[in-house]
Design goal:
Blueprint: E1 5-14, E2 17-27, E3 32-36, H1 43-49, E4 58-63, E5 66-67, H2 73-81, E6 83-86, H3 98-103, H4 107-110, H5 114-118, H6 124-136, H7 152-165, E7 170-174, H8 182-199, E8 202-206, H9 210-216, E9 219-224, E10 227-233, H10 239-244, H11 256-260
Parallel strand pairs: 3-8, 3-9, 6-7, 7-8
Antiparallel strand pairs: 1-2, 1-4, 4-5, 9-10
Length: 261
Amino acid sequence: MTPAIAAKDLRVSYGKLDVLRGVSFDMAEGQGVVLLGANGCGKSTLMRSLNGLEKLKSGMIHVHGEELSTARGRQLRQIRRGMGYVFQQFNLVPQLNAFQNVLLGAMGRHKMGLLSCLSLTAPAHERERALHCLERVGMADRALHRPSELSGGQQQRVAIARMLMQAPRVVVADEPIASLDPKAGREVLDLLWRIVREEGLTMLCTLHHLELAQEYADRILGMKAGQIEIDAAIADTRTDQLNALYTGMTRVDAKPTEVAA
């Protein structure tokens, strides 16, 4: 069965600094994977590589069998349309209400301009889908509210609805609860994971909370200093292994003297 994502020997360098140092992994379709690692270990570079925003020094990335690392133009846009994103910062357009922000998720399918989302000229079935997506995240009653009128947890729910509106096959969630308080964070993570399961999506999610990673993930990818240190089903990981990702030489720019200090 073709993996949803297949990364082989990924290497990325910034000048003389090697950031990704031979990263390889596969993700099966429908799998929920949590990516763990200390700040500066290369997680963000890996995440950017998976949508073609980071130029590889070498290696290959395939998304549902299509090679992302060499894709350009229309082919690259098509691959990216199949990947939905949820960010730490919600990235909602402040001048638009929740419904209009969600409708932006359809732009890739119809080449809709921003004015289409503002003036109700978007296709009727897309407007219906946008409302359905808001209902899925419990925000239909806030459809006409702007982001400034919503709490952080509500804004992230709208962002998840926008991602769902895009109809992706793969979800990349980069610290989706880092800006939220513990209660709102758990509610958002419950919602995100439930939607991913119900839709049969594949998700790679970065987290810093080990207990949440152990609770939600099917599998753990653990990075340390630009390399994969752990690649195992959640049932095969131990807490001491996960804690070790945050000790010693964790950063790609660390020097042995800094670790000793």
